[in-house]
Every structure is written in structure tokens, then in C-alpha cells.
Specification:
The radius of gyration is 46 Å and the shape is elongated. The protein is α+β, with helices and mostly antiparallel strands and 651 residues long. Helices cover 25% and strands 26% of the residues. It has 4 domains: 41-158, Bulb-type lectin domain (Agglutinin, subunit A, Orthogonal Prism), CATH 2.90.10.10; 162-295, Agglutinin, subunit A (Orthogonal Prism); 302-425, 3-Layer(bba) Sandwich (Hepatocyte Growth Factor); 488-588, Ribosomal Protein L24e, Chain: T, CATH 2.30.170. Belongs to the eukaryotic ribosomal protein eL24 family. Pfam families: B_lectin, Ribosomal_L24e, S_locus_glycop.
Length: 651
């Protein structure tokens, strides 16, 4: 017992020693890797690739305080984005805008050659700063900068290309836009306002985005003067989002909860994925919500999803009982995009007591009744619905897929909405259709198995596997189980040679000649030229009696190469054979008609010529007597009496 206990203790100490040795060996390597990754500047020639052992963020560059870091941010476990991170909270403040994200692999690399570039050898460049600098720095305010030390100028900075976040003292001009992480919402500046826009229709451009929140400048401390330049926004450290034009006095102030309160925390404003603009304050351990542009959830553009109904102070529901509110939506995004111009089926949904959450920012038309408002939308394929107010007569036309509406107690406000066919069906109907589909599938599978068995039995009884056609042939046919004949052409006369018929001649050089009958075989052995015999196809084509060049002949040409079987290609080929045969027959008939076009007039000319030459053969004797010119004149000749007697005796 004591010996077993000693062995156990010994093994435990050996394991501890092995783990300690491994840690000592690996720790310097890990420490060196982190130190090398957190440099404070990048020079020309810098290159970095993603590390497969990193799970969230791989730091490449940091500021002097260590609060911000530039590196690879892992997205969806297999993709990466170049991002600036707030290190204490691991919150991304800026991301490089790319058309699509790069893959987290060793082939993807970030390098600096005057421009900061993300690329891989397969898809080339994902993103580039398009500069010619010699140094990259990250400032203490999270601004990524590319500098040209030879001229002491700033070439590029990330503050000019914000993603979805604004930080303190970052200018936001009218040429910029904040875009939410899902790409559905954006913030832009107008001539005298800040606006939030929604991209409800993914197929449209940015000019057709719907504005759902707008804040005009109050111009309390300063006024906006036309011609003095556009306005810009700035997040002030005193706790407000201000709009400025030229001077130091703001033309508008949106105060936060911590307005003019003492504190040294970091502030930021972010456009959230739900479309709300929120401000945050860093306390040293967490981010505190300090401001939000839209306080009521029902005023958000799509708080309850597509075809959702938001009840103020209550939960969400769907516009109709035929839909179930699941996963935060009533209709999937696949059924709520694009337009209805190419749709053949949709069903109409009507609901009373609804209104739009941002109707004050939408255009409207004044109509006399709900029926006229509905008919205007029904005849327009880009219209998804209308909301009509019976009291005011305002008709709001929705030219984008239906989003969340607000439920009100006023029954005079009615809505008419279009729903794509197949969207929003109840569970019973969907279950019934699934059951019918499964039953039909089972019947098809059983029928296919029975048909395959019968086909194999028939083929065994027949004794042969049938003939397999290569690609196409003349006069090909298919049996009921799929076998096909191989039809050959006679080498001499070009007629069809069916299986089991004809003669096959193999020459010494292994070339094969097939003949339809002994006549062609004998002419071949006598070395006769088929182009000189009138009964061959070669002679007829050479002398223009048959078509020689046509696109249908290319389909019939024999191709001695293996082809991978494709069921769709085979079905389309079999269908095309009939059409191509019909086209060829029509073209041959047209060719024959053109070839025989002058034959009738030629025959008429020859008949007229022959009639003119042999007219005396068709004239009646009476006509000859009436026209002496048609007969020879009679000549009287004197004869002797002896000659007359001899003639009479002969008669």
C-alpha cells in the first residue's frame, strides 16, 4: 500500500515538473510576441498576418498610453477586420470600410509600403489607404494617422472615415456618414440638421433612403449663415453633441445626462444596429448610457421587425393573426425585400388603428377616401402599402417593404399592406403542405424503385444492355427504360446504318469503314469516287441539290470523347433533338423550293421552242388546206403511157 502511494506521489511530481518546464519554455516566446505586436509606430516594410491562436483581437499598434490599439478583430470566427479598439473595454471604435471582410488565414496580410493595405494573393486588395507616407501612428484620442516626415504633413487619418462611432473632438462633416454595423441605418448632416436614415429597400441607392429622425439646429448661441460653409458636428468633452459652422459658438447643443459635469472619462457616440443614436461615458470599469436620440422604442424604424405592430408600453405583435411573432419578427427578410414588380401573387392585409412611427417626416397625398388610396397603391408595383387617415384625408404611400407600425386607439387610421405569396401562412396550412409534399415524395421514390426494377428485369430478359448513343444522331430513338441506339452513317452514300445491318470493313491501318449495303462496299473496293456518282449524298451536296452548311449539322456531328453524365443536360438534349430535326426539315424544304424555283419557267421556254419547231405536227389537215402557205405547191410532171400502166399494175 505504501509502495503504491509512493509511486502516485512520484508520478504527480513528474507531471508538475513537466508542466513547469513547458511553461518556462513557452512563456518567453509568448511575451516576445505580445511586445512585438504592441509597437507604437509602423514603418515602411511592416508586414503582419493573422495568428490562428488568437480568438478575438490581435494587437499590432498601440498609442503611448496603452488605452487604444490597432489590430485584427476576429469576426464570425473565420473573418477579420482592421479595427481600432478601446483596450480596457475591448470595444471597437473604428473599422476599415471594406466591400467584404477578409478571411482569418495565413494568406491574408497587412503591410505598409507608404499605404496601409489589407490583401491576400487570391482576391488581391480588400482595403487600402491610398497614401505615400513613411510612418503610421495611433494618437491618444484613438486617431489612426499616416504621416510624411519629409514634409511634416498628415496624409491620412481615420477620423475622416468614421465607421459607426464618433469619439471626443472628432469632426463629423457633411461629406461623412455613420453607418450601423448591419448596414441598415446611417447618420448624415443636412444644411441645418442631423438626420438618421434607414435603408429599407436593399436594392435602392442611398438617395432613396427613408429619414426617420431629424434634429434641427436651434441656433440659440449662433446662427447659420448661408454661404459661410456647411455645418459640422462635434462631440464635446463637456457632455454634448454640438453643431458648428465657423465660429467657436455652437449653433445647436444636444445635452447628455452628464452635461457640464466634472469627469475625465472617455465619451463616444454610436449608431446602434436598431437605428438609435446613443452616447456613452466611460467610468473606468464600464460604459454608461449617457444619451439616446429616440427614447420611445415604438418610434424606432423597425423595433418589432417586418409587419410588426408596436404597442406603446407593451410588447410587440404582428399585424395579423396569420403571422406568428417569433425571433423578433413576423416575416423573414427573404420575403420582405426588393419590389413586387416581378411578383405574380401577393395577398392584401388590412388593419385599423395603425399609423407610421415617423409620419411627420414622410410625404403624403390628400385623397377623398380609403378606396382611392388603396387603388393608387394596388396599381403600383413599387408600392408595398398605404396608411390613410379618414379625419385628415392624408394618404401615406410606402414605397419600401413594410416595417414596424404603431398601434393606436383611433380606428379612423387604417392601413392597406401587400404581403408576398407564401409569407405569413399559419402553421396548420404550412404543416398540411409539408405533409402533402412528403407524401408525394414518397410516392415518387416508390415509383422510381419499381420502375428501376422492371427496367432491369426487362433488360435481363432482352439479353443485351442496349445501345448507348454518344451525343446525338440521325433517327435516334429511346426505349421506355432509357436505352438508346447507336446509329452510324454509310461511308460511301451517307445513308443511315441501323444496328445489325450493313457491312463493316477494317483496313490494315485499323481504320473502320461502315457500309449500308453490298453496292456501296463494291464501289468502295473498285475505288470509285462517291462525289461522281449521282445517287450519293456527296454528289448531291457537291452539285447544290442538298444543303452543305447549316448549324443543325454541328449538333449531329459525332464526337468521340467521354462526357460526364448530367441529367439536366440529357433532358435538354432530348428535347432539343426534336426541335432541331424540325428546323432541319424546314430548311431542307426551303432549300429545295429555292433550287426548283426556275425549273417551271425553263420547262415552259423549252416547250414553246419545241412547239415552234414542230408546229406542223400538231396542225389539223383542214387547217393546212385553208392555209396554202403551210403546204408545198403541187408540181405537174409529164409521164409516158407505159409508165402509167406500170404504176397501175403495181397498185
Amino acid at each position: 500500500m505504501e509502495r503504491q502511494l509512493t509511486n502516485s506521489v512520484t508520478r504527480f511530481r513528474v507531471t508538475q515538473l513537466f508542466l513547469f518546464t513547458t511553461f518556462c519554455v513557452l512563456y518567453p516566446t509568448t511575451s516576445f510576441r505580445v511586445e512585438a505586436a504592441t509597437t507604437q509606430e509602423l514603418l515602411k516594410g511592416f508586414t503582419a498576418t493573422p495568428d490562428s491562436s488568437v480568438s478575438t483581437f490581435q494587437a499590432l499598434l498601440s498609442d503611448s498610453t496603452g488605452n487604444y490599439s490597432l489590430g485584427f478583430l476576429r469576426v464570425n470566427r473565420i473573418q477579420l477586420a482592421l479595427a481600432v479598439l478601446h483596450v480596457p473595454s475591448s470595444e471597437p471604435l473604428w473599422q476599415a470600410k471594406t466591400t467584404r471582410l477578409a478571411r482569418w488565414s495565413e494568406t491574408t496580410r497587412l503591410f505598409f509600403n507608404g499605404s496601409l493595405v489589407i490583401s491576400d494573393p487570391h482576391t488581391r486588395v480588400f482595403w487600402s489607404s491610398n497614401t505615400d507616407g513613411n510612418r503610421v501612428l495611433l494618437s491618444n484620442t484613438s486617431d489612426l494617422q499616416i504621416l510624411d516626415d519629409s514634409h511634416s504633413i498628415l496624409l491620412w487619418q481615420s477620423f475622416d472615415f468614421p465607421s459607426d462611432t464618433l469619439v471626443e473632438n472628432q469632426n463629423f462633416t457633411s461629406t461623412m456618414s455613420l453607418v450601423s454595423s448591419n448596414g441598415l441605418y446611417s447618420m448624415r448632416l443636412g444644411s441645418n440638421f442631423i438626420g438618421l436614415y434607414a435603408k429599407f429597400n436593399q436594392d435602392s441607392n442611398s438617395d432613396s433612403d427613408q429619414i426617420y429622425w431629424r434634429h434641427r439646429a436651434l441656433e440659440a448661441k449662433a446662427s447659420i449663415i448661408e454661404g459661410q460653409g456647411p455645418i459640422y458636428a462635434l462631440l464635446n468633452s463637456d457632455g454634448f453633441l454640438g453643431m458648428y459652422q465657423n465660429g467657436s459658438a455652437p449653433v445647436d447643443v444636444q445635452a447628455f445626462n452628464s452635461f457640464q459635469q466634472n469627469g475625465s472619462g472617455v465619451r463616444r457616440v454610436r449608431l446602434e444596429p436598431n437605428g438609435n443614436l446613443k452616447g456613452y461615458y466611460w467610468t473606468g470599469s464600464s460604459w454608461i448610457t449617457d444619451y439616446q436620440a429616440i427614447s420611445d422604442p415604438c418610434e424606432l424604424p423597425s423595433s418589432c421587425g417586418s409587419y410588426g405592430l408596436c404597442h406603446p408600453g407593451k410588447d410587440c405583435s404582428c399585424l395579423t393573426n396569420r403571422m406568428d411573432y417569433e425571433a423578433g419578427r413576423c416575416v423573414s427578410s427573404e420575403n420582405n425585400s426588393g419590389d413586387l414588380c416581378n411578383e405574380s401573387k401577393y395577398w392584401a392585409l388590412r388593419r385599423k388603428g395603425v399609423e407610421l412611427p415617423f409620419k411627420e417626416l414622410m410625404g403624403y397625398e390628400k385623397m377623398e377616401s380609403l378606396e382611392k388610396c388603396e387603388s393608387a397603391c394596388e396599381l403600383n408595383c413599387t408600392c408595398w402599402g398605404v396608411v390613410y387617415s379618414n379625419s385628415s384625408g392624408f394618404c401615406y404611400v410606402l414605397d419600401y417593404p413594410i416595417q414596424t407600425l404603431v398601434g393606436v386607439g383611433d380606428e379612423t387610421k387604417e392601413g392597406y399592406f401587400k404581403v408576398r405569396g407564401g409569407a405569413g401562412k399559419d402553421k396548420v396550412e404550412v404543416g398540411f403542405r409539408i405533409g402533402v409534399g412528403l407524401l408525394c415524395g414518397a410516392i415518387l421514390v416508390i415509383g422510381a424503385v419499381v420502375g428501376f426494377g422492371l427496367c432491369r428485369c426487362w433488360r435481363r430478359k432482352r439479353g443485351v444492355n442496349g445501345y448507348v448513343e454518344e451525343e446525338a444522331g440521325v433517327g435516334n430513338w429511346t426505349c421506355w427504360c432509357g436505352n438508346k441506339m447507336r446509329l452510324e452513317k454509310c461511308w460511301f452514300c451517307s445513308s443511315t446504318v441501323y444496328p445489325g445491318h450493313g457491312i463493316q470493313y477494317v483496313r490494315n491501318d485499323a481504320k473502320i469503314f461502315r457500309f449500308c449495303r453490298s453496292k456501296c462496299h463494291k464501289n468502295f473496293k473498285m475505288k470509285r469516287n462517291p462525289r461522281k456518282l449521282k445517287w450519293t449524298k456527296a454528289y448531291r451536296r457537291l452539285h447544290g441539290k442538298d444543303m452543305t452548311q447549316d448549324s443543325t449539322f454541328e449538333f449531329e456531328r459525332n464526337r468521340n470523347r467521354p462526357e460526364r453524365y448530367d441529367r439536366n443536360v440529357t433532358e435538354n438534349t432530348l428535347k432539343a433533338i426534336k426541335k432541331i430535326d424540325k428546323v432541319r426539315v424546314d430548311r431542307e424544304a426551303r432549300h429545295h423550293a429555292l433550287r426548283m424555283k426556275g425549273k417551271k419557267s425553263k420547262e415552259q421556254r423549252e416547250a414553246a421552242k419545241e412547239l415552234e419547231q414542230s408546229i406542223h405536227m400538231v396542225k389539223a389537215p383542214a387547217a393546212l388546206e385553208q392555209e396554202p402557205s403551210l403546204t408545198l405547191p403541187k408540181i405537174k410532171v409529164k409521164v409516158s403511157q407505159q409508165a402509167e400502166e406500170n404504176r397501175l399494175m403495181e397498185e
